[in-house]
Amino acid sequence: MVYYEVLLHSDKEFQGCDDLIGKQIAEKGLLLGLGNPLLDISACTDHSFLEKYGMKENDAILAEEKHIPMYKEMAENYKVEYTAGGACQNTMRVAQWFLNEQNIFAFMGCIGKDKFGEILESKAKEAGVLVSYQYHDTLPTGTCAVAITDQGKNRSLCAYLSAANCFSRDHLDKSINQTLINEAKHFYITSFFLTVSPPSIMQVAEHACENNKTFIMNLSAPFLCQFFKEPMMQAMPYVDILFGNEQEAAIFAKEQELGTENVEEIALRISDLPKKNKLVPRIVVITQGQDPIVLATEGKITKYPAIYVKPEEIVDTNGAGDAFVGGFLAQYVQEKSIDICIKSGIYAATEVIKQSGCTLPEQPQFTW
Hints:
By secondary structure, the protein is of the alpha/beta class. Helices cover 35% and strands 21% of the residues. It has helices at 17-25, 47-52, 69-77, 87-97, 115-126, 175-183, 198-210, 222-227, 229-235, 246-255, 263-271, 320-332, 338-352, and strands at 31-34, 38-44, 60-62, 80-85, 105-108, 110-112, 130-131, 134-136, 143-149, 154-160, 186-190, 214-218, 241-245, 283-288, 291-297, 300-304.
């Protein structure tokens, strides 16, 4: 049994949110993201802290019972920085960063009724994201500890999903969320959400297809392509735009027996997989770190060079993929060309890796 101290708050503290969201949706909420919200807790620690919790430099692990006290210890004993994290929510924050108007990007996920949930929600709203969280009565808000050592050279991540694992499809049935879904023109899902609520994904996917809206998905991680391929392939016919990196694409191709290891060929074959909405062709975008981005659609390949970043300028590559998608979507909802969307994604990823965590400078300086 995992134990965690939950600082509960009354339902009254969360009342009134629906009315506020309802007023905002009428003109905003162009894109809705569904994912696993995590409060990133970053702090400069030392090696003894890592040893205490059995972590290694540059680890990226899921929390076990022995890790649970770590989050509270970081918050109480170190100078911490909080960020509204989780892959999908990161993307929503980055996309919103590009725009002068708030609440264009909306997000749903499950958090706890606790202090960390309050902080996460305030940080997401600070970034301009329109949130409609599901609140879990007993489980704590999901967190990700980011233990920074060696003056920023190494970062060890430990994620505790907790309440984020408990999003349920009935949250979509709330009248306020039905309004949010009906008013949104685009939807974005990370494959991490396949581990939580495939029925929610399919409900949104079918709505998008029936109403000729854009359904966008991310492969997100190689293990998802391998171990969650059944729900992934149930959603795939609805996907209008698919993102992934070269490692994810390689595992996807192997698991789906696409018969090639060539990134460009993989992208083309994914773009040609069966598709429900015949009105628009599927676009597949594969990133390759500092190598060119590959875009496949309608039997054609287009490659875009990445921006070279000097090694000494790179602070943290975590969140680069989330930022790329955020930059892309920021332009896509404004109906910019795909070329501009890709260039915006490259710019966002380049800026994020110069920062600690998935954070950004005060103002974007993107031009095309």
